[in-house]
Amino acid sequence: MRLKTKLVLSATALTSAIVLVLSTMFLGELLRQRIEQTASSNDVLVHEVLLMTRQTVESGLRDHPPTKPGQSSFDTAVADALQAQGPLMDVMQAIVRYSPTVQDVSVTNSARRILVSTDPDAIDTTMEARPDLLHLRDESILSQTRQVFGRPRVLDLTEPLDRNGRPFLIVHVGVRSSFVRASYEPWLRAALLFALLAAAGAMVAAGLLASAALQPIERINERLATLAGTEGELPEQAEVTSEPRDAVVRMTQTIDRLDAQMRSTEAGYTTLRANVNQMLETLRDGVLLFGEDGRAAMVSGAATYFLDRTEKGMVGRLLEEIFMRGTALGEAVLWAYRGGEPQVIDRVPLEDGRVVQFSLEHIGAGTGRQMGTLVRLRDMESAAQLEKELEVSRRLAAVGRLTAGVGHEVKNPINAMVVHLELLKSKLARMDNAAAAGAQRHVDILTGEMQRLDRVVETLADFSRPMELHLTERSIVDVIEAVAELTEAEMDENGVRILTEAPREPLLVRIDGELMRQALLNLVLNGMQAMPQGGLLRLASYRDKGDVVVEVADAGDGITEDILPRIFDLYFTTKAKGSGIGLAMTYRIVQMHGGSMDVRSTTAEQAAAVGARPGTVFTVRLPTSAAIEVRKRVGHGSGERRPTGESV
Description:
By secondary structure, the protein is of the alpha+beta class. Helices cover 56% and strands 18% of the residues. The two termini are 86 Å apart.
């Protein structure tokens, strides 16, 4: 059903209901007034008959007094007086003849016996009980309607004539309900005609109103259709929109198309924004995008590495406020910004000794309207170090593949040699002489060395075997607390006290909890073993430039400069019972998480020379979860990287 039809029907129904209610109230009020008018006019007639009755009784009793004393003789005299007087009957007959609603007029005694009446057949009979017209006047409209339009009946108007304070004659005027109804029907027909005319007028007015109301909707629909365009219409929507003529239906379908287009655009924008944010978070280069008004609209997290400001503190600020005058970088950027041409400056030495490369490009400069400015900052030293780490990672990956193959090839001959040594031992055991005993000792030595070689090859194979990461989002603080709790008893035995430092907010990273706990456990145990006399082992975690940093610092004698570059080499150890794989495995786990690991150490001699405390600090830097994925895609974490040992 079209909206216009609905509006017409609704307006018609509403108007009809209003007309019906008002007409009902109007007709009810008319009926009540008609009954009241009938009662009032006939009440005058009742009093007229009562007056004539009084005069008739008085003159009759005066002319023909009762012959005997007593009530019966008095009643007989009254009845004879009433029936003998012609003027009374003439008045009663005139009332019936000329009143449109009166059916009969009677006079009864107190026992309701009819003494005189306009109906000759009713004289000397008992009058039946009839509804009182005065009472009907005060009843509800529903009761009045039922009395008037129901079964025909006679309504009674009475007035008593008292003697000694008690009624002895009663005047009755009978009003026929059908007569009242007949006088009321012209009003009823007029009201029904009015209701029909009102309903017809309502339909016409509703049609005009619907047309006027739908005109703005038609104009809105045309503008929406222009905004949506035909190219954005989906196939299933095209089938629906080709048929209906209802403006609201067409507007609804147009809005649906616009909604689909906006959702598609919003989804694309959200994906693009997520990709841009992810890219900016993982870039080592600082990227700043300024709008047409010169205010920063987008700032990458790495920009805080070059500028002494937070990322949120730079968004919305002017370029002149971010790049301060009086600094080398600020002067260079402001000079390039004022020039209006794209600039690439390779070397800008900063106050802290770093060398920065920056480029500045005006977006939309070729179109005659500058839409914004893009500034990129790059740390030349970090870029060179990254290239070096990537090269080392490629080499180590190749060495790892070669080592895995060598381990596999060496293990098979070792197994064969062990089997033959066992056979030789069994044969020597059956020989009972001094030469056999000497040979047995050499066989035992060979067996022990073969077992040690087998363990070395097994360790090499385990180290080269790929690990499967089960990454979950969790706080690195929880992992540190688990490691501290795990080593608490052993630390107490060795007199080592652990001090943990962590911020209140959780430092969330995407890691394999078991592997990361093993990596930190290796660092904590190395720190404990570096302090044989006991001491303080500090475990600190914090956020730095978008990364999560964990520091494990001991108070041992430190690591000498000649050993420091080799501590992450596989099988390298300075401990009598060390295997040389703990730190190498730790670094491998960190590298698999896309992180980096550095170490700095101060020996006792160096500490005494500069007045500092000896010790070693291992620094583990883990990126955010988004940074891990991007680094894997661009190859930053595809091979092993070796940290640079820094001696302090």
